[in-house]
Amino acid sequence: MKLSIVIVNYNVKYFLKQCLASVLNSQLTGVHGSTPLQLDVWVVDNDSVDGSVEMVRRDFPSVHIIENHENVGFAKANNQALASCTGQYLLLLNPDTVVESDTFVKCVDFMQSHADCGGLCVKMVDGEGNYLKESKRGFPSPEASFYKMSGLIHLFPHSKRIGAYYMGHLSEDEVNEVEIMPGAFLLFRREVYEKIGGLDESYFMYGEDIDFSWRIRLAGWKNYYFPETHIIHYKGESTKKGSMNYVYTFYNAMAIFVKRYFSGGNAKFFSALLHVAIWLRATMAWLKRCAGRLALPLVDFAVAYGGFVLLKQLWASQWAHNIDYYPAQYTYLVIPIYILILMTASWLEGGYDKPVRPVRIVKGMGLGLLLLLAFYSLLDEEQRYSRMLLLMGSLWTLASSLLIRGVLVKGERRKGKGGRKTLIVGSEKETARVKEICRHAGAPQAEICRQDAGAPLHHLQDLIRIEHVDEVIFCGADIELQRIIELMASLKTSAVEYKIAPAEGDYIIGSNSILSSDSLYLDDLNTISTDTCRRKKRLFDIAASLLLILLSPVLFWFQRKKRTYYSHCFAVLVGRCSWVGHTGRKGIFSPADLFDEPSSEVAERLMLRYMRHYRTSSDAAILIHNWREI
Asked: pTM score, two decimals?
């Protein structure tokens, strides 16, 4: 008997590696002596640039891989592999999951003993051991969707009517028939696939699991929720909820579903309801993000402005003996411009990035002051209000910014956000290895305590409570994945993050968002991954693109590949790629393009050096060197 597993990957190499390790280490013989399983594993890569394909070929040679040269979407990518799968049972599995060792045999045994079971999903927990309510879902009727979007579902989560979207009336620990299964773990029979076909490729990312689950029921089978085994699902998504890209993709998917399964007035009503609710949610999320990002700059501006005005009044009284010496234009226009230039320079240097580093603020505002003084010397005499006041105001802006950061950092420490405490569960040898990984990765310093791998559950619970532990790292070399998953599901300690250090590989995995670099510690310390460097790189790309477009009437005629000149300029300008690419980011050129045909080993070393010691001047040098190849 064969089980075919399809995993669609997009730029999540380390999660994929952990997922494949758990899949290939699975138990294949059932407890009741059933026919052993044969695994047929497929990975479909949607044009990743993080080395995922190379990793699979190197570390998992038995896995079939399909390499796409564009992101064709979740549904189409799954169908590519399903067309070649030969298993009696077919499983769609997300790359940001970890399965228990007996997950597959338990699920297949259940399906064999339930002939009416067309599809099966399992209990899922997140990176903090919390149950994920999307493990089972109901049909997204207009009423059920309204209760979810309005938030009423949170008030009555276990109501059969109001909680219908997640079928909250059904116990999370009991086997039950459900209507919709999540695409993160969706197991079905080959007969189902042969009768209803694959996923609907009209859906690019969202909605295909809802459509597929409903078609299974329409074809006469039942879908079951099976909690006798469970998996970790880190809930990663390629788009951030609340972003315009997410809104468009999700709404488009739901619009397709509504058109297909509703008719007449219901379809129009449901479509209008979805449209209003989703855009309203996206707008509120966007406003919330903006408020969070603008809060600190607004406080900085207000304090700096108040200090500037006070200094102006004092200076006018003492120096000019006239408190109204400076015109209103200076107070309401010039001073705000001074402050904005200083704050912008600080922002460019990482003054608003975390963790707080005073040197960034000092460097940024120092550069801002030099810029102000340079412009000040070019102004007419009547527009030069006071160089001394400019200097004193700039120093006040710097001092107030540093003071505000100090207060915030102290407040975070009081709340326990600073000085994190980490509990490592494993042997002394593995604990030392984990510490070394964190140190090399530049992870925030933390107070570390250790517990033996064989410690009972109540010991871990007591240690987490007494020591006020913020995160727990399980050593995969000392503890089986099944035991780790059981511990995560049993501990369920709020505000504690759980991570896994695989037996092989210099990385640690554990995050509720696979896009969060703070929770994915890699073996290379890449400065290019910092917010400051990403911002500088993006600003360089925009400025260089605009300059190349402006100079195109001249530069275009010197190009060796004239067809790509404008397409490359506009692609970089809108953010589809960068002038200089690196691991995790597409580019027109690479660091190796500074040299003529370097060997693969040299190119790899150049890339590593570029990422570790990124400078905007590096991008400029590479672009200038290759200006005729644009």
From this structure: 0.67
